[in-house]
Amino acid sequence: MIKTLLYKLFSVSMALLVLFSTVSFTVEKHFCGDVLMDAAVFNSVEKCASESQEAPSKMDCCEDVLDVIKGQDELTVKTFQDLDFDQQLFLTAMSYSYLNLFEGLPELVIPHKNYSPPNLIFNRQILDQVFII
């Protein structure tokens, strides 16, 4: 139970790590003077009310800033043969010992599970006075 839960948790966290390391996005900011008026990630920023009414040449104090956060473009995949011999040996030994660590007990087969013994009329050991010591 806990092994499957840990396996699923680890798988989801690795998938999210790969997803967030490869995602790129842009943060758009609108400044009027030194004051940040609006910031947006997925949509465009709202302009100042005075900027939309007047001509853009008169508004020298307002500016838009784009911050581009680039994700990783290429993922490198290493194979087992790319590792050194010591690393291969360590990885093989660790995986072998880890897999055998959680090996469960085999199901015990009880051949006489549904067998009911015959009714005893007399006890043979006491009758013959033979005891296992």
From TrEMBL:
The keyword Lipid biosynthesis does not apply. Residues 1-26 form the signal peptide. Keywords: Signal. It holds the Pfam family DUF8199. NCBIfam families: HYC_CC_PP (NF047658). This is Secreted protein. It comes from Bizionia echini.
